[in-house]
Amino acid sequence: PEYISVTNLASLLKVRVEDFVRKLEQLGFEEVQNDHILNAEHAGLVAQEYNFEPIVQADGTDGDLYPAPALSPEDYAELPQRPPVVTIMGHVDHGKTTILDYMRSTSVAAGEFGGITQHIGAFSVPLASGKKITFLDTPGHAAFETMRARGANVTDIVVLVVAADDSVMPQTVEAIKHAQSAQVPIIVAINKIDKPQADPERVKQDLARQGIEVEDFGGEVQTVNVSGKTGQGIPDLEEAITTLSEILDHRADPLSRVEGWVLEGTTKKSGKVATVLVRTGTLRQGDILVAGNTWTRVRSLHNEAGLVVKEVGPGMPVEVDGWREQPIAGDEALQAEDEQQAAQVTELRTEKIEREQMAKDMEAINEHRRLES
Ligand code: GDP
Ligand code: MG
């Protein structure tokens, strides 16, 4: 409904009308009567005061789950740190896969279990310091682009890989443009430093020509000499990432309702699964997630080593099973209260998509008719 009376909303929220009226007055509503009518927006805001997540149905068509509003700077500063989410970019053959594989193979999860990892589109590297870094390993950066198109940056930091024997190439320039337009800070990994032809100074000069102000030349962008082949410099790269993450002050609330991104969706023998990167909250078995027009009651959570994990906090990727339909990369995953709410939201979203498709079809038919006549 578009409007609701004070009495009805109080009964929905299971609070006494008198207490509810007092609350409304505290919130700034004036001369509240029991038959006072609230619009959907106000009712939603009041419901949130009682820790309800309202399904806003302002016009009767937009039943949906929404991400929590942004926190105030004071509240944000109280939250625990979370791992940074890093995307590796660079020219083909400059060593992106080699560097990722090196870091993956040295991660505890992979090491303890024979190094057999499965591709889930992201993985977490635990460091000696106890901190963690999450690397996205999504082909074609498809999810990255979809999410960016929606105005959200899933990536906190871009590691730009430049081969020391080849320097800046067309896809290096493209990656710089991507990172800059998304306003994601860059760390440069000058790779293949083990090669005799390696010339890191030339790389720095070529980067400066592309507007990348590297530290050595008085700028802010860190460069790290590495070899994905020998592992030389990789711990320095990891340290550069965690240091930058501390400066950027990446934090998240592990106790909030779960919000995340779908990085990949696939169908396996076990059914429809999706890699979800948790943005805030802690995801557990039995939780209910909605993504696009599908939902799941989480049967089990698996990490990149294929192992069952009990719970996953902010900044961490995990494979989630039990989806009704296959989720789509780039979709937002939001926790619902219960199966009923999840089913309702997905139904409304599906109807909305169908309505929009029908409107498009009608337009095409009308256009066709106009051209015919
Ligand atoms: P990508 O296209 O950026 O993912 O590049 P790859 O990781 O596939 O690497 C391309 C080639 O460079 C492969 O033959 C790698 O073995 C080689 N390579 C990658 N990193 C290094 C390195 O640090 N040193 C040397 N010598 N070769 C490397
Ligand atoms: Mg590759």
- Structural class of the secondary elements? alpha+beta
| Radius of gyration based on Cα positions | 25 Å
Q: What share of residues are in beta strands?
A: 15-25%
Mean pLDDT: 87
In angstroms, what separates the terminal alpha carbons? 43 Å
Percent helix, as a range, is: 25-40%
User: Would you identify the regions where 5 or more consecutive residues have pLDDT less than 50?
Assistant: 57-61
**Strand runs, count:** 18
- The SSE string, one letter per element, is EHHEHHEHHEEHEHEHEHEEEEEEEEEEH
Which secondary structure elements does this structure contain, and how are they paired or packed?
Elements: E1 3-5, H1 6-12, H2 17-26, E2 37-39, H3 40-49, H4 73-78, E3 85-90, H5 96-105, H6 108-112, E4 122-126, E5 132-136, H7 142-149, E6 157-163, H8 170-181, E7 186-191, H9 200-209, E8 223-225, H10 234-248, E9 259-268, E10 271-280, E11 283-284, E12 288-291, E13 294-297, E14 301-302, E15 308-309, E16 311-312, E17 317-320, E18 332-335, H11 339-372
Parallel strand pairs: 3-5, 3-6, 6-7, 7-8
Antiparallel strand pairs: 1-2, 4-5, 9-10, 9-18, 10-17, 11-16, 12-13, 12-18, 14-15, 14-17
